[in-house]
């Protein structure tokens, strides 16, 4: 039995002929193999197991670069209104932003509305607003409030 150790190597996981690699594909010790990254048929630098290349033998095309939905550069140093998820609302001058829509606002005032509808404001100064929490960004200049066009007209009570 002692002389048969090699026959059991990897046998429960995918065959002993591949050196006990567990059925994941054999190890090729040939140094010239896979030196050229232009292999056809899915044996590129992705490892053949869905690595970086995804395991597909097709040509990889570059995706077009995504443009920002909102160009914040035109609002730099201008006052904007920012609404957050959770209901908070602030007004301040935009001083900076990044690709994650994190904002740096200066001279910030938070508008707080209580349950009775009374509006109060408090000064916050310099604020960094996290992009994932933003719901709305609107310039202060050039906006005005209008009545809700979808509100049902009031019915006279009899």
UniProtKB/TrEMBL annotation:
It is found in: Nucleus. GO terms for molecular function: RNA binding. Belongs to the snRNP Sm proteins family. Keywords: mRNA processing, mRNA splicing, Nucleus, Ribonucleoprotein, RNA-binding, Spliceosome. Residues 1-67 are annotated as: Disordered. GO terms for biological process: mRNA splicing, via spliceosome; nuclear-transcribed mRNA catabolic process. Residues 67-143 form the Sm domain. Signal peptide: none annotated. The keyword Ribonucleoprotein applies. The keyword Ribonucleoprotein applies. This is Sm-like protein lsm7. Pfam families: LSM. Its main location: nucleus. GO terms for cellular component: catalytic step 2 spliceosome; Lsm1-7-Pat1 complex; spliceosomal tri-snRNP complex; U2-type prespliceosome; U6 snRNP. CDD domains: LSm7. Residues 41-57 have a biased composition (Gly residues).
